[in-house]
Design a protein that fits this description.
The structure is a single chain. This protein is mainly α. About 35% of the residues lie in helices and about 0% in strands. The chain has one helix and no strands. The N and C termini lie far apart (about 60 Å).
Length: about 50
């Protein structure tokens, strides 16, 4: 049988994670795409150098 404490801890951590993610301020904003700010031609990936 599954321990009630283990269930409470796992579900509590999931609830804490969801609560912290929902409190993020960047969830309330959308990046508006405008004609004056075109998207970059190639997305930059951290840790990679461009080919020579």
């Amino acid at each position: 049988m599954i321990d009630n404490f283990a269930l409470a801890v796992s579900h509590g951590l999931i609830a804490l994670t969801i609560w912290l993610l929902l409190r993020r301020p960047d969830l309330d904003r959308e990046a508006a795409a405008t004609a004056n700010d075109p998207a970059p031609a190639t997305p930059e990936r951290p840790g990679r150098r461009p080919r020579a």
